[in-house]
Design a protein that fits this description.
The complex is a heterodimer of chains A (about 260) and B (about 325).
Chain A: E1 3-6, E2 9-11, E3 34-36, H1 38-54, E4 58-63, H2 69-78, E5 82-87, H3 96-108, E6 114-118, H4 129-136, E7 140-151, E8 154-160, E9 165-172, E10 175-179, H5 191-196, E11 201-206, E12 221-227, E13 236-237, H6 242-255
Parallel strand pairs in A: 1-4, 1-6, 4-5, 5-11, 6-10, 7-10
Antiparallel strand pairs in A: 2-3, 7-8, 8-9
Chain B: E1 3-7, E2 10-11, E3 14-15, H1 17-33, E4 36-43, H2 47-53, E5 59-64, H3 73-87, E6 91-95, H4 98-111, E7 115-125, E8 128-135, E9 140-146, E10 152-156, E11 172-176, E12 187-194, E13 207-211, H5 221-231, E14 234-237, H6 239-243, E15 264-268, H7 274-277, E16 285-290, H8 297-300, E17 303-306, H9 309-325
Helix pairs in contact in B: 3-4, 5-9
């Protein structure tokens, strides 16, 4: 079972004040800490679990600059066999379709019974690269996958639907799956583990080498402007020292009839 | 006159709310632009469904076929791509749902039309459309335009538009046969499974004490359990807590978990991603505790406490115990 996992390095933005950049096309990133996208962490873990059970290889792929190699090294330390980074200059000039096109070109040349992406990236929240790749590569597909089992040369997947419902399907191989969080428990990666994995192959491919015509990479969906959320009335914040806050809190609960 | 397409989402014989919400938006745009609304309904024995849509669209295009008995993104994609090619709608709306997330990107590649996902508004602009969406889990908004193309695709977030009827329409039904071309899907539906069954029903609780990622470590969940006990409330949680297996799935509030309607919902260490907040729209009062004053949860909560939960929760608990005792 050869598996390719497409991953992305994203900024941590919880409990962070985001600042719009001067062009109003994105946020300032120089002060932000970056991590492997949460969904991709589950995707790489799932690929490694399948490899451990059924053999084969796991390849991690990203499109990005040298800093983005950090997440590939993490994937290698987790147990991926090799990694590829596509050097494409400023990636913000591509839309999801362009990124999918680049990744598809890389995947074409790699052995793949399965291709995984995360359901969503934590930064732009588009959630479309995976399924675009499935169509570009003419692969069978399943979305928001929370369980995978091998079954007579096919796979049985459970997809997460709304309201606590799961949808069980049988999918022929090769297939592309978008992996949902919670499918497994991603393993811990130590600094030492990352250092050890430095010996593994990390290939750098220049976008030009992939031979994708420019017009196929031109963005079709264009961000005109980004901005902070419009002001709303929002919550009434309880002010004062903790005792005062606690008194107000109890008063609210009493008024709403949940203090017995 | 052009048609705005709405791809009808239905499950287990029922039209899903997102469909009505999209039809509302399509109706509003159609009125503004003198367009018409076309519902695209794929399924098997869908007459009763079409009946439910008959006063919300001008046309219902129906593909009724045994092979469409359950949702299949491959078949939907092929059929809808063909229909788009034929009728060239300037705008096609789909749900930003599990199924829509599978269908829309495939359809975008297949049809060559640009796509914006999980949109919270669609605005007519210069003869085409602009979509409004969120990034960074709601901390940033963006306006998105589409490259020159005969049309565009938009997936719509659940719960942002009313599901009411807008205006009065009389739908004409058009039956179509699915194209005879290669229609062998690579995925075969087997069954639906309930993934959130359990012995506590959070949908019935009057007071929910809900915990999110801010709790940090598994052993800290005890703090929330004790707090809930002091309040005689029920513990629930957001998705990351279930993903980490710290609490069972049946306690999860949100689109992929349960929708709840307690008198009071206390959200502790929950940032307030829309997937979570969609599950508490029925709550009477929402009180949020979060140390990040910019957390999106404070946009929808009624009351907020901006503080470190590890400092304030014990104080709140002591106060409650004191009041109950006294």
């Amino acid at each position: 079972m050869d598996i390719v996992v497409c991953v992305k390095r994203v900024p941590l933005t919880e409990e962070v004040d985001l600042v719009i950049d001067n062009q109003k096309k994105g946020v300032k990133k120089d002060q932000l800490a970056f991590v492997l996208n949460d969904w991709d962490n589950y995707a790489i873990e799932e690929a490694i679990l399948l490899k451990e059970k059924h053999g084969g290889t796991v390849t991690a792929v990203t499109v990005g600059n040298e800093d983005d190699e950090e997440v590939l090294r993490r994937c290698l330390a987790m147990g991926a066999d090799r990694a590829t980074r596509v050097e494409a200059g400023d990636v913000s000039r591509f839309d999801s379709l362009g990124i999918a096109r680049i990744l598809s070109q890389v995947v074409r040349d790699l052995p793949h019974d399965l291709v995984f992406t995360g359901v969503l990236a934590d930064d732009d929240n588009h959630g479309m690269v995976g399924m675009m790749m499935a169509e570009q590569l003419n692969l069978n597909h399943s979305c928001m996958v929370t369980a995978i089992e091998l079954e007579d040369g096919k796979i049985r997947t459970t997809s997460e639907l709304e309201g606590g419902l799961g949808e069980v399907s049988v999918v022929g191989l090769p297939a592309l799956l978008t992996i949902q969080t919670g499918i497994n428990e991603p393993r811990y990666v130590s600094i030492l583990g990352i250092r050890k994995a430095a010996k593994k192959e990390l290939k750098i491919v220049d976008l030009g080498e992939l031979g994708i015509p420019d017009e196929e990479l031109a963005p079709r969906t264009i961000i005109e402007e980004v901005y902070l959320p419009p002001e709303t009335e929002g919550a009434q914040i309880l002010e004062g020292d903790p005792d005062k806050i606690a008194t107000d809190f109890v008063e609210i609960l009493t008024k709403k009839g949940v203090m017995e | 006159m052009s048609d705005i397409f709405v791809v009808v989402e239905h499950r287990l014989g029922e039209i899903r709310d997102i469909t009505f919400e999209m039809l509302w938006k399509a109706g509003e745009l159609a009125e503004k632009l003198s367009h018409s609304v076309t519902a695209v309904l794929l399924g098997h024995e869908v007459d009763p469904l079409a009946q439910n849509l008959s006063d919300r669209a001008d046309t219902i295009i129906i593909y009724d076929d045994e092979r469409l008995k359950s949702f299949n993104a491959d078949l939907y994609k092929q059929i809808i791509a063909g229909l788009i090619e034929e009728l060239k709608p300037p705008l096609t709306l789909m749900g930003s749902t599990s199924w829509g997330m599978e269908l829309a990107p495939c359809l975008s590649v297949k049809s060559g039309l640009p796509l914006a996902t999980d949109c919270i508004d669609v605005i007519p602009k210069n003869g085409t459309f602009m979509a409004q969406r969120q990034m960074y889990n709601g901390k940033i908004f963006s306006n998105v335009s589409f490259a020159d193309a005969p049309g565009c695709l938009v997936t719509v977030r659940s719960g942002v538009f009313p599901k009411d009827k807008l205006g009065d329409r009389q739908a004409q039904r058009v039956q179509k046969d699915i194209p005879s071309a290669d229609m062998k899907p690579g995925k075969e539906f087997k069954e639906f499974v309930e993934t959130a069954a359990g012995d506590v029903d959070i949908t019935q609780a009057e007071l929910l004490i809900s915990v999110g990622r801010g709790i940090g470590e598994e052993e800290n969940i005890a703090l929330i359990k004790e707090f809930a006990e002091a309040l005689s409330g029920v513990v629930s949680c957001s998705r990351p807590i279930v993903d980490k297996n710290w609490l069972p799935k049946y306690l999860q509030v949100g689109t992929s978990g349960k929708s709840v309607s307690p008198k009071v919902y206390i959200a502790i260490g929950i940032s307030g991603a829309f997937q979570h907040m969609a599950g508490v729209s029925g709550a009477g009062t929402i009180i949020a505790v979060n140390k990040d004053p910019k957390a999106p949860v404070f946009r929808t909560a009624h009351y907020g406490i901006v503080d470190d939960l590890f400092k304030i929760i014990p104080v709140l608990k002591e106060k409650i115990l004191a009041v109950k005792k006294g």
